[in-house]
Amino acid sequence: SAERFMETYEQLRAEFKLVFGELFEGGAADIILVDPEDPLNTGIEIIAQPPGKKLQNLALLSGGERSLTAIALLLAIRRVKPTPFCILDEVDAALDEANLERFADILQGFAKTTQFLIITHRQATMEKADRLYGVTMGESATSQLISVKLS
Amino acid sequence: SAERFMETYEQLRAEFKLVFGELFEGGAADIILVDPEDPLNTGIEIIAQPPGKKLQNLALLSGGERSLTAIALLLAIRRVKPTPFCILDEVDAALDEANLERFADILQGFAKTTQFLIITHRQATMEKADRLYGVTMGESATSQLISVKLS
Amino acid sequence: MRLKRLELIGFKSFANKVTLEFDEGITAIVGPNGSGKSNISDAVRWVLGEQSIKSLRGSKLEDVIFAGSDGKKPLGMAEVQLTLENSDGFLPIDYNEVTITRRVYRSGESDFLINKTPCRLKDIQDLFTDTGLGREGYAIIGQGQIDAILSTNPEERRSLFEETA
Amino acid sequence: MRLKRLELIGFKSFANKVTLEFDEGITAIVGPNGSGKSNISDAVRWVLGEQSIKSLRGSKLEDVIFAGSDGKKPLGMAEVQLTLENSDGFLPIDYNEVTITRRVYRSGESDFLINKTPCRLKDIQDLFTDTGLGREGYAIIGQGQIDAILSTNPEERRSLFEETA
Ligand SMILES: Nc1ncnc2c1ncn2[C@@H]1O[C@H](COP(=O)(O)OP(=O)(O)OP(=O)(O)O)[C@@H](O)[C@H]1O
Ligand SMILES: Nc1ncnc2c1ncn2[C@@H]1O[C@H](COP(=O)(O)OP(=O)(O)OP(=O)(O)O)[C@@H](O)[C@H]1O
Ligand SMILES: [Mg+2]
Ligand SMILES: [Mg+2]
Predict the structure, then answer these.
(1) DSSP-based three-state secondary structure for D160
(2) Burial (0-12, 13-18, 19+ Cβ within 10 Å), B104
């Protein structure tokens, strides 16, 4: 229904602005309805402006800035519609060390109410884990598992 | 012409097999003409089999294995049709530490005859550089450059 | 509700059975390229009822069965079991613990079970409708997918919103 | 032939002029997210005659001109100069050193120069035809493009081969 869509839209927009601001330590972001008069058919635009920079097309953002913006959107969705668990496969690949630290901290906060299964190569992300599974290729190209409980 | 295509194909295929074997320390790879009778129209298939594993569809390879296979193809093209320089923007993003070392070593070999401009976040790649440029966001969201000559 | 346990037997590179136990918070999966990490994520997608083999990086149904290697013959079956803790009634089923089992044989035959009771694929998919764990809920983000989240066209972005609503 | 020097003035995030000098071997460009590294790669593409604004991540021609920021006004022009060492005659032009200049103004006007002599965009593009430095030569690999190399469809893969031949 149009009402429910608008309600979800307002929530998602608010959460997205919040999480974006935390991940970028500033800047501005928004979710815009192309045609607010027609909620059930309108297109949806995403706006992202890193701190100190001029607002431009999403495409002009750097690889790391796009990753961080997408992560902000994902986490905003998780706040509006919580799922019991969430699986993330190497979403931190393009982040530099500073952005990675911020991402890992914020993820830890979200993990208080959602189970996260995160596949990663990055040290800072691993350090926030409550449990670590190491996967290796054993003999005969068969995967094996080692479990390390950290907390 | 069909002859020239076949000649290029044979060279590229040979170089691809070589570089793949070096990057994966084994395994097998190939470039297959779907219809060898019709060189000017045939589709082209890429085959990649990491060491010890069964030959399967390219899509089933892992992210890092696909990166390494694509890098092998790129470097094979560089051997068949050398260009004076080559620009690589974060092609090493998905590689684990072991594959990264091997990539950096092999890149160093290729760099004897080709100039490489490589954008990277990875330590092992940076260590092979003859010259390093650091780019940072200065005041007023303006990029600035610092130059470090290493060799 | 939360994930409790995941078991893989013969699924992709997991020729030998592995069991993952889950607690609250963050579980990190680490390891070298090609070791099998993303295959674990594929296993969860598959056992929840994913029908598009393409989104599991395969091209035919049997691509999820261990295909053999230099030192080992192919297996004839793949099985994934997912156990969920359900005492909050998040899943519309009258059990505190729910185990979903999915099996596929080289013949193409499949088995589906909820708490050891055979059922249809549809019954498993229905269990997770409206939970946000379906295809467009963005609860499972695949490798390399993070950039695509921003590049979705207006129609896909709409369906993302509708799934969240 | 080899790259000698690259100068960016007003190109994307490079509001202040920067100069990169190139030697033999490997030049690495490093720095934080959003600092301007990929913009340097875009600058080389652009000065070599790239006409697709989309492949420079823009949507209109003036997207490559410094757009301003909290602390600085937008600029009216962007310029990139690429200097190449050509004593081996790799480029079909009778100079040991070749400087390509490309400029664009907010009005939409453009300047193109080869060794300070005005020319058309086509003259620059023609200089690099068959050198492998064109669009399909795969000499410039953009961020996130590495996976696409394997996922190209049969037609794109053919044109890659033809470019290499
Ligand atoms: N049916 C199958 N039988 C045997 N091996 C398989 C099967 N399907 C996939 N594999 C193997 O699993 C490996 C891929 O595993 P996966 O994608 O999980 O790696 P990964 O740990 O995520 O690596 P990366 O860090 O590079 O992303 C591939 O080498 C592939 O050959
Ligand atoms: N015309 C312009 N004017 C001002 N800034 C611009 C312009 N075009 C792009 N930018 C800025 O340049 C930045 C992107 O730079 P670039 O893509 O080179 O980053 P990067 O160093 O490659 O980062 P990453 O490591 O994340 O890939 C963006 O923040 C964008 O806002
Ligand atoms: Mg993976
Ligand atoms: Mg970049």
Answers:
(1) helix
(2) buried
Give the strands of the sheet with B131-137, arranged side by side. Answer: B143-149, B131-137, D26-30, B115-119, B85-89, D140-141
H helical segments located in chain B: 2-24, 63-80, 97-110, 123-126
C27-84: pLDDT as tens digits? 999 999 999 999 999 999 999 999 999 999 999 999 999 999 999 999 999 999 999 9
CB-defined site of ligand 2, < 6 Å: A 50, 53, 56, 60-65; B 135; D 12-13, 31, 33-39, 63, 65-67, 143
The strand pairing partners of C4, in sequence order, are none
Q: What is the mean pLDDT of chain A?
A: 95
For chain A, list the strands marked E by DSSP. 28-33, 44-49, 85-89, 115-119, 131-137, 143-149
D56-73 pLDDT, tens digit per residue, is: 999 999 999 999 999 999
| Residues of chain B contacting residue A94, judged by C-beta atoms under 8 Å apart | 90, 93
CA distance from start to end of chain C: 20
> Which among D39, D54, D59, D64 is the best mutation to test ligand 2's pocket, defined by most ligand atoms within 8 Å of the CB?
D39
With an 8 Å Cβ cutoff, are D149 and B74 in contact?
yes
**Contact status, residue B22 vs residue B110, Cβ threshold 8 Å:** no
A99/D33 touch (CB, cutoff 8 Å), yes or no: yes
What are the residues whose beta carbon lies below 5 Å from ligand 3 (ion)? B 62-63; C 38, 143
Please answer whether residues D141 and B74 qualify as being in contact, where contact means their C-beta atoms are separated by less than 8 angstroms: yes
3-class SS letters over B67-92: HHHHHHHHHHHHHHCCCCEEEEECCC
Query: C135-138 contacts: CB < 8 A, separation 24 or more?
Result: C135/C50, C135/C55, C136/C160, C136/C163, C137/A77, C137/A81, C137/A83, C137/C163, C137/C164, C138/A74, C138/A77, C138/C163
Contact C154 A34 (CB under 8 A): yes
Give the ligand at the shortest distance from the Cα of C30. Answer: 1
Q: What is the pLDDT of residues B28-46, one digit of tens each?
A: 999 999 888 888 888 889 9
Of the candidates C2, C14, C72, the one whose C-alpha atom is nearest the C-alpha of residue C46 is: C14
* Residues from chain C contacting residue B72 (CB–CB below 8 Å): none
Q: Is the dihedral of CA B137, B138, B142, B147 positive or negative?
A: negative
Distance (Å) from CA D121 to ligand 2 centroid: 25
The two most distant CA atoms of chain D are separated, in Å, by 50
Average pLDDT value for residue range B103-118: 97
Task: Give the nearest chain C residue to B49 (CA atoms).
Answer: C69
Cβ burial D118-142 (10 Å sphere, 16+ → b, else e):
ebeeebbbebbeebbbbbebbbbbb
DSSP assignment string, A54-76: PP--GGGS-HHHHHHHHHHHHHH
Interior CA angle at C65 toward C63 and C67, to 5°? 80
pLDDT digits over A70-92, tens only?
999 999 999 999 999 999 999 99
